[in-house]
Write a structure and sequence with these properties.
- The chain has 484 residues and is α+β, with helices and mostly antiparallel strands.
- Strands 6, 7, 8, 9, 10, 11 and 12 form a seven-stranded mixed β-sheet that branches.
- It starts with a helix and ends in a 5-residue tail after the last strand.
- Helix 1 runs antiparallel to helix 4.
- The protein has nine helices and twelve strands.
- A hairpin with a 2-residue loop joins strand 9 and strand 10.
- The longest helix has 60 residues.
- It is 52% helix and 17% strand.
- Adenosine-5'-diphosphate binds next to helix 8 and helix 9.
């Protein structure tokens, strides 16, 4: 199970996700709702004003058609019930003179309409003017319509038309309520939907993390299986599994390496200690002391060789080895190494043959590459019996420099061609009983690590006519123009 901390994180992630979704969705819907509301309100006001203007212009024409100047409105005679049923459509009319005295008003109102003197003055000046006020407790919109445009007789008269706003306000309130309900519903549904979606989105990650945590805590499980078959998470799970696999392998190798290394270090130390203990048991002759000291020195040298090899190997494999790369002729490096082996070879009556010119240019770390060449030649010479031959060649093939070291020794037994490059791998001592290798079993592992640091590969094979061939391939920078 995910830890409480993890569960809390997942919950807060879902909460934040849901809140963000809700804010965005509700914001968008609220904006559209607000726009719709204002557009509707605007439309209703326009419609009302158009109808009021219509009434005003008709009534103005009718009320001023008497040549004597007498004025009266043409209105329906409505019963109280009828008036109540068309209450919202009713238009109240009143004519004022510019001094604010009422001249005529609708038959069905018993009191004056509310008078806005500023509006009256503006209308008296010839401008159509709109105001809002309250009449008999009801909000109304009023139009002040100048009658001067209808003749001399009326140039000091203003017609006021008032319309109740109640119906319009009621409608706007209903629409506002509906829109607010819509926004609220959208907010709640979006939050719930996003919360649910968040749970669905988080669930696989949750399950994958659970299994990864189990593995981290030492469960016997080796791979993550959760959601490994779903197309969305297949890649994530397989990357994690590959990583786990590599970690496990690295850990295994590390364990084996440490075990092997301590085992290898213990043998010479035990021998050293044994010899010194035996020597100290009683008084010895100077010759005996010299023999013990010599033997101890040999073991000490073996230990120091082993420590050096281990250091080179771990550094190379961990990539901690700083490469001092420079372009150099690989064939020249081989010939220099062969020169050093000349005497040893002559003592053993082994014929040595070096690479022909021209050489091949390679970007290499001279010290490390010399170590590769040295290890291969040393092995070849060690295993080649008297009268045999060691041959080293360097050629350029497909943009690679290929170094081959062959010998006429016993070759490598079936099934060991790959294994010889493993650390501490040694072939059955009995096979090479006559050869005192004195090796640490790390020589070829070091060769492999260094070659790989140079971006190359190394392999071993047996020559058909007997003996082994070690082949190193590294990217080349070209063939030497002049003979090396
Ligand atoms: P060491 O450092 O002990 O020589 P290496 O890693 O160099 O170990 O070699 C591993 C094993 O491969 C050795 O035990 C040896 O038996 C075998 N080997 C290496 N080179 C040759 C060769 N040229 N001919 C035959 N066997 C070889």
């Amino acid at each position: 199970m995910a830890s409480g901390w993890m569960a809390d994180r997942m919950r807060s992630f879902r909460f934040l996700l849901a809140v963000r979704f809700t804010v965005v969705m509700t914001g968008a819907v609220a904006a559209v709702a607000a726009l719709s509301y204002f557009a509707l309100r605007q439309g209703l006001v326009r419609e009302l004003e158009a109808s009021m203007l219509n009434v005003a212009s008709i009534q103005a024409a009718v009320v001023t058609d008497d040549p004597t100047g007498a004025m009266h409105f043409h209105e329906w005679a409505l019963t109280a019930d009828e008036a109540a049923s068309v209450r919202d459509l009713i238009r109240y009319l009143q004519i004022w003179n510019t001094a604010g005295e009422s001249l005529v008003r609708s038959a069905f109102i018993t009191e004056d309409l509310p008078l806005d003197r500023a509006a009256l003055a503006r209308a008296g000046g010839g401008t159509l003017t709109w105001t809002e006020g309250t009449f008999q407790g009801i909000p109304v919109r009023a139009l002040y319509y100048p009658l001067e445009r209808l003749g001399e007789l009326h140039n000091r008269h203003v017609l006021q038309v008032a319309a109740p706003l109640e119906a319009q306000r009621r409608m706007l309130r209903t629409v506002a309520f509906l829109l607010l309900s819509l926004v609220g519903t959208v907010a709640v549904l979006t939050f719930l939907g996003a919360w649910w979606l968040g749970a669905r989105a988080v669930k696989p990650v949750d399950a994958i993390v659970d299994q990864a945590e189990d593995i981290a805590e030492g469960s016997p499980r080796r791979t993550i299986e959760a959601f490994a078959d779903t197309w969305e998470y297949r890649r994530l799970v397989s990357v994690l599994n590959r990583m786990l696999d590599r970690l496990e392998q690295a850990l295994e190798t590390q364990k084996r390496f440490t075990a092997d290394a301590s085992h290898e270090l213990r043998t010479p130390l035990t021998v050293l200690r044994g010899e010194l203990e035996v020597a100290l048991r009683r008084e010895r002759t100077p010759q005996e002391y010299t023999r013990v000291l010599r033997s101890s020195l040999e073991e000490a040298e073996r230990l120091s060789r082993l420590a050096g090899d281990l250091l080179t190997l771990t550094r190379s494999e961990a990539g901690a080895q700083q490469l001092q790369l420079r372009e150099d002729d690989l064939a020249v490096r081989v010939r220099i190494a062969l020169d050093r082996f000349q005497r040893q070879a002559a003592d053993k009556s082994v014929q040595v043959q070096g690479p022909a010119s021209p050489g091949v240019l390679v970007r290499l770390d001279v010290d490390l590459m010399d170590r590769v060449i040295w290890n291969l030649l040393d092995n070849a010479l060690k295993f080649t019996p008297s009268g045999g031959k060691v041959e080293a060649s360097v050629v350029e093939t497909d943009g690679n420099a290929v170094l081959e070291v062959s010998d006429t020794g016993p070759g490598l037994p079936e099934g060991t061609l790959d294994k010889v490059f493993q650390r501490f791998f040694r072939i059955d001592e009995a096979r090479t009983a006559e050869v005192e290798t004195g090796g640490t079993g790390l020589g070829l592992a070091i060769v492999k690590a260094i070659v790989e640091l140079h971006g190359g590969t190394v392999s071993a094979e047996n020559a058909p006519e007997g003996g082994s061939v070690f082949k190193v391939t590294i990217p080349s920078c070209g063939i030497m123009k002049t003979p090396s």
